[in-house]
Amino acid sequence: MAKIAFFGLGNMGASMAKNLVKAKFNVTVFDLVGSQVQLLAEAGATPGSSVKQAVESADIIISMLPAGKHVESLYFDEDGIVNNISAKSLFIDCSTIESSTAKSIGEKLQAQGHRFIDAPVSGGVAGAAAGSLTFIVGGDKADFDEAQSCLQAMGKNIFHAGGIGAGQVAKICNNMLLAILMAGTSEALQLGIDNGLDPKVMSDIMLQSSGRNWTLELYNPCPGVMPNVPSSNDYQGGFLVDLMNKDLGLAMGTAANNRSVVPLGQLAKSLFQMHGNAGNGNLDFSSIFNAYKHG
Ligand code: NAD
């Protein structure tokens, strides 16, 4: 089985690395936070004491880091991976970053004889823990095929979106649409409530009508309509407003690069930005529902 070096053991990465261990891959892990490395060592991974030691004879490098600057730094700094790896490896970056950064990282790695795919995920912390993530991959088909076995250990649906960077584009298109749907659904529900309707009845009607969408089916933003979703748990857990704002920022940057017209995306970005700035950054993104309430 391939030897994997896994970098970034945060909310998502720790569970993803655990699932690779469960699938019997030989996994060495590294994070700047020592306690996270220890946690994975207890789950059966080999703890890496440095980047250099973690990448020793690794066939596959996986990174799950906050943003593009972290990925560039981990890969290309003096004490980073590229300067400390002897083998020609397959790099899989699962972080959500700018597609332009993914492309430039891919070009730099290829110039050094390595291979690269961008493989951002959808499914959140729960999907990472359950091993049911959706991977949206950009890169050469041969590299996509080579990554299959380890991506399957962490996810259920694995899509090839196109060349390097295409995974990131598809991911932020999806999340921009999700933000628009969540804001629109909140707006429609509150309009009904303001006019005396029961939000559960409203939701049932829209679910069987042309307004049906994923947020109504699985993630209703109005408290009490649906059990076991963040809105019925004070908007705790789930997908944070801050993370949605990050993804909407990436979507707007991508749109600007190609002069794409995204008025609804821009409006959603402004709404979620205002909501985050009002102290809601650490709540689930369905809390945008609260922005529509009034006295
Ligand atoms: P996180 O902040 O919880 O974890 C990031 C980890 O990377 C931290 O443990 C940090 O110490 C580590 N790190 C940073 N720089 C490093 C370096 N140079 N070397 C080694 N480790 C380093 O973030 P997260 O929630 O796990 O998200 C990771 C990525 O996944 C982000 O790009 C995010 O947008 C994306 N994502 C998150 C979710 C979610 O629900 N949390 C869902 C989909 C996608």
From TrEMBL:
<dbReference type="InterPro" id="IPR002204">
    <property type="entry name" value="3-OH-isobutyrate_DH-rel_CS"/>
</dbReference>
<keyword id="KW-0560">Oxidoreductase</keyword>
<feature type="domain" description="6-phosphogluconate dehydrogenase NADP-binding">
    <location>
        <begin position="3"/>
        <end position="162"/>
    </location>
</feature>
<feature type="domain" description="3-hydroxyisobutyrate dehydrogenase-like NAD-binding">
    <location>
        <begin position="165"/>
        <end position="291"/>
    </location>
</feature>
<protein>
    <recommendedName>
        <fullName>3-hydroxyisobutyrate dehydrogenase</fullName>
        <ecNumber>1.1.1.31</ecNumber>
    </recommendedName>
</protein>
<dbReference type="InterPro" id="IPR006115">
    <property type="entry name" value="6PGDH_NADP-bd"/>
</dbReference>
<keyword id="KW-0101">Branched-chain amino acid catabolism</keyword>
<dbReference type="GO" id="GO:0051287">
    <property type="term" value="F:NAD binding"/>
</dbReference>
<dbReference type="InterPro" id="IPR036291">
    <property type="entry name" value="NAD(P)-bd_dom_sf"/>
</dbReference>
<dbReference type="InterPro" id="IPR008927">
    <property type="entry name" value="6-PGluconate_DH-like_C_sf"/>
</dbReference>
<dbReference type="GO" id="GO:0008442">
    <property type="term" value="F:3-hydroxyisobutyrate dehydrogenase activity"/>
</dbReference>
<comment type="pathway">
    <text>Amino-acid degradation; L-valine degradation.</text>
</comment>
<dbReference type="Pfam" id="PF14833">
    <property type="entry name" value="NAD_binding_11"/>
</dbReference>
<feature type="active site">
    <location>
        <position position="171"/>
    </location>
</feature>
<dbReference type="InterPro" id="IPR013328">
    <property type="entry name" value="6PGD_dom2"/>
</dbReference>
<dbReference type="GO" id="GO:0006574">
    <property type="term" value="P:L-valine catabolic process"/>
</dbReference>
<dbReference type="InterPro" id="IPR011548">
    <property type="entry name" value="HIBADH"/>
</dbReference>
<dbReference type="InterPro" id="IPR029154">
    <property type="entry name" value="HIBADH-like_NADP-bd"/>
</dbReference>
<keyword id="KW-0520">NAD</keyword>
<dbReference type="GO" id="GO:0050661">
    <property type="term" value="F:NADP binding"/>
</dbReference>
<comment type="similarity">
    <text>Belongs to the HIBADH-related family.</text>
</comment>
<dbReference type="Pfam" id="PF03446">
    <property type="entry name" value="NAD_binding_2"/>
</dbReference>
<dbReference type="InterPro" id="IPR015815">
    <property type="entry name" value="HIBADH-related"/>
</dbReference>
